[in-house]
Every structure is written in structure tokens, then in C-alpha cells.
Amino acid sequence: MNFELLIVNFPYFVTIILFSMGTLIVLTQHNLIKKVIGINIIQTAIFLFFIVVGNIHGGVPPIYDPQLTDVIYINPLPSCLMLTGIVVSFSVTAFALALIVKLYIYYGTISAPNFMKMK
């Protein structure tokens, strides 16, 4: 077995495992807070995927240095997009948790099937 190939692709395996775990949590849990946690795990997997795709093995950060020649710079666009995504993710999570608190105050439960019964 080629361990170098496995080590190089290790972040992709972690991404797949995280995404699968988050999807499983969202689909199987009835508790709304656990669903938000699952969504955050999915977002983390997506962030990791884009960062890994944007990375170049042996590349350097894209800071220009005239003394360095023949260097390969890492593409900064995926990292910048993921920073924006982290901010949006944090905002969505805070809003979702605020909604869950309001739902608990009004209805006394945070279980999704109980909301379907309240029609």
C-alpha cells in the first residue's frame, strides 16, 4: 500500500468523514440544537475541502518578496472565501440558536417532531 498517497490525500478523507457525520446528525436527530451542530460540522467539512483544494504542496504564502525567485505561490482566493464563509457561518449559527431559544420560550420544546404535531 502506498502510504505517501494516503498521507497526501488524508485531508480529503477527513473532509468526507466530517461531511458524512454532519449529514447523519442533521437527518437523524430531532433536537434542533443537535441539528445546528450537524450543520456546523458540514460547514467545517466544506471549509476544509476548499482550503485543501487551494493549497499547493511546496507553495509559499502569496506575499511578494523580490529576493525569492522560482517560487510557487498558493492561491489566496479559497482562503479569503473561507474567511468570509466562517463569518457567515457564525452569524447563521447565532441566528439559528436565537430562534431555537425563542421557540423553546413559546412552545416549551426544541424537538422537531413536536412542532409538526402542533399544527
Structure description:
By secondary structure, the chain is mostly helical. The chain is built from 5 helices and no strands. α2 runs antiparallel to α3. The N and C termini lie far apart (57 Å).
List its salient traits:
5 helices; 71% helix; 119 residues; 0% strand; mainly alpha; single chain
Topology (elements, then pairings):
Elements: H1 3-8, H2 10-28, H3 32-54, H4 77-107, H5 112-117
Radius of gyration: 20 Å
Write down the overall geometry: elongated
Mean pLDDT across the residues is 90
What about the largest sheet?
none
Task: Report strand %.
Answer: under 5%
Helix content estimate? over 70%
Distance between the termini: 57 Å
Helix/strand order: HHHHH
Structural class: mainly alpha
Helix count?
5
Number of strands: 0
Q: Give the uncertain stretches in residue-range form.
A: none
